[in-house]
Design goal:
Elements lengths: L5 E11 L2 E12 L3 E5 L6 H9 L6 E8 L2 E4 L5 H6 L2 E4 L11 H6 L16 H20 L15 H14 L4 E5 L7 H16 L3 E5 L3 H7 L2 E6 L2 E7 H5 L2 H7 L6 E2 L13 E2 L13 E12 L2 E12 L3 E5 L6 H8 L4 E8 L2 E2 L5 H6 L2 E4 L11 H11 L6 H11 L1 H4 L11 H13 L5 E5 L10 H13 L3 E5 L3 H7 L2 E6 L2 E7 L5 H9 L21 H8 L1
Parallel strand pairs: 3-8, 3-9, 6-7, 7-8, 15-20, 15-21, 18-19, 19-20
Antiparallel strand pairs: 1-2, 1-4, 4-5, 9-10, 11-12, 13-14, 13-16, 16-17, 21-22
Helix pairs in contact: 4-5, 12-15
């Protein structure tokens, strides 16, 4: 249609100091289209939305809206100018006035006519305007299934309901182009289905949607086209299935599933030979009782459930790898098990219930945790760092015995016990962090991205150390972006997407097809045609109510 509204950006760029957050990006979305924008954390997705909505002024490039054949240049215009043209932005976190009712929050989005300030005089015309605004807000709330929540304060609504109030406000504003930043983040499964149906309905009724979203299953379901960002640049763009199947996109999202380590050295030195580490066979084909068993784990950031319904079990000497795309909730699972985040569900270690207990109690009873950010005290010696770990553990063995174990696994670290931790290389500090967990005498060690920042040449020796740790009877749970390392060191794999399990099984079954399923939502259903929703309110779960009131 020639008269439809189209938002387009050409050569859009902005830098924050030396960081080129967005660098020469072209993107276009018209009424009746949904364009997905995907990429890793730090790819520039939210910055792109800031540029399109007017929150950030670009250093270069243009932002243009074509409306009924007229072109409006907006790259230097404030956000309110874009709002008058129907460009509406929704943020990742709810931006409601908590003390106002849901209806009053929606009324804030209804465009004010000229002379709206006269309403304060209480004239008949102003009363009619106020009534019309109230009806528009109530109609929008009914559209998203929240008619019976109109009079409730926004701060008393569940997270899913708050998200729908924001969408109702966008509807009442007369949005023609809707910019959505992670609209499914933190929602329950029921809420996600309702929000997805609403977005599909808006798209089918002619609203243009630019959808920034980590969950590729939703992008596959809703989007006509997709733009893949990487380090601020467009890596690929085009039809959804074709673009997500692009070999370079697959490589960036999944990487190599075999552990092949080489390179990483300067040109003056020969590269070491490529090392292919075979996938380990299960240590014992017979089922054994789990030393760590987690059931129905839900983990929260404030009131937001970032992980929902995760089960896992690992036996002594086994390895479990947790994999998935950025934002899947992998590290959050480890922090929930370790007691570092508010969580519900059961956590059992060697049969003892640990859920509801503090992190130090869990450490004393055999749980070890190695965070992604290194925790060594650089001004203390290696031995002093290890003694701190021993003091925090069960002390079932003497410090000398614990040091002997460290020497067996990490002889390089034990040989530098008198050196300051700050003098170690990055790889040695990572081994020190694991050694600190080991001297506490754990039954299970949780490792969060243990190879992050390591030179590629160090990954194969690190994989060998984890394999020897398992052979020593310690269960290992690894969150790791390097799928080759996971396959080389773990007996089972759990795949997460959007905070929920989507794949699990023995390592030998985790092939390229399984990786596509976990990382690229390759088995997601194709986009459907018009799908008007049946409005139904999203009730807060007891857990959501508990956390909203705390």
């Amino acid at each position: 249609m020639a008269d439809r509204t189209t938002l387009s950006a050409r050569g859009l760029a902005v830098a924050f100091g030396a960081l080129r957050a967005v660098d020469g990006v072209d993107v276009e979305v018209a009424e009746g289209q949904c364009v997905g924008v995907v990429g890793a954390n730090g790819a520039g997705k939210s910055t792109l939305l800031n540029l399109l909505s007017g929150a950030v002024r670009p250093d270069a490039g243009t932002v243009t809206v074509v409306e009924n054949g007229r072109s409006h240049r907006l790259d230097g215009a404030p956000g309110r100018a874009r709002a008058r043209l129907g460009i509406v932005r929704m943020f990742q976190t709810a931006r409601l006035v908590p003390d106002l009712s849901a209806r009053e929050n929606v009324e804030l989005g209804v465009p004010a006519p000229r002379g709206a300030w006269l309403e304060a005089l209480g004239l008949p015309t102003s009363r009619r305007r106020a009534d019309a605004r109230r009806r528009a807000a109530e109609d929008a709330l009914a559209r998203v299934g929240l008619a019976d929540r109109a009079g409730i304060a926004a701060g008393e609504l569940s997270l899913g309901q708050q998200r729908l109030v924001e969408m109702a406000r966008s509807l009442a504003s007369g949005a023609r182009i809707l910019l959505l930043d992670e609209p499914f983040s933190g929602l329950s499964r029921t809420a996600r289905e309702v929000v997805a149906s609403l977005i599909a309905s808006l798209r089918d009724e002619g609203v243009g949607v630019l959808l920034v979203e980590h969950d590729l299953a939703q992008v596959r379901l809703l989007a006509d086209r997709v733009v893949v960002l990487d380090a601020g640049r467009v890596l690929a763009a085009g039809p959804v299935e074709e673009t997500l199947a692009d070999p370079e996109v697959v490589r960036r999202y999944i990487g190599d599933i075999e552990l092949e380590i080489g390179g990483g050295l300067d040109d003056a030195r020969p590269a070491p030979p490529v090392v292919a580490v075979p996938v380990p066979a299960p240590l014992d084909p017979a089922p054994r009782p789990p030393v760590l068993q987690v059931r129905d784990l839900r983990v929260f950031y404030g009131a937001v459930p970032a992980v929902d319904g995760v089960d896992l079990a690992v036996a002594a000497g086994d390895g479990l790898g947790i994999v998935g795309p950025n934002g899947a909730g992998k590290s959050t699972v480890l922090r929930g098990v370790a007691g570092l985040l508010t969580a519900t569900g059961s956590v059992r270690l060697a049969g003892e219930r640990l859920d509801g207990t503090a992190t130090p109690h869990r450490f004393r009873h055999g749980l070890g945790f190695v965070p992604q950010t290194l925790t060594a005290v650089v001004d203390l010696s290696v031995e002093e760092n290890l003694r701190l770990g021993w003091l925090a553990g069960s002390r079932a063995q003497s410090f000398a015995e614990a040091m002997e174990r460290v020497g067996d696994l990490f002889g390089e670290i034990a040989g530098r016990r008198k050196d300051p931790a700050g003098a170690l290389s990055g790889g040695q500090r990572q081994m020190l962090a694991i050694a600190r967990a080991l001297v506490a005498g754990p039954r299970v060690v949780l490792l969060d991205e243990p190879t992050a920042g390591l030179a590629p040449v160090l990954v194969a020796p690190f994989a060998d150390a984890l394999t020897r740790l398992r052979a020593d009877g310690v269960a290992v749970v690894v969150v790791e972006h390097n799928l080759g390392l996971v396959r080389a060191t773990c007996s089972t794999i759990l795949g997460l997407r959007a905070g929920a399990p989507v794949w699990s099984g023995p390592t030998e079954r985790f092939d390229g097809a399984a990786a596509h399923e976990v990382f690229l939502a390759a088995t997601a259903p194709a986009r459907t045609g018009p799908s008007p929703i049946e409005p139904s309110p999203i009730e807060p779960s007891p857990i959501e109510e508990e956390h909203l009131s705390s």
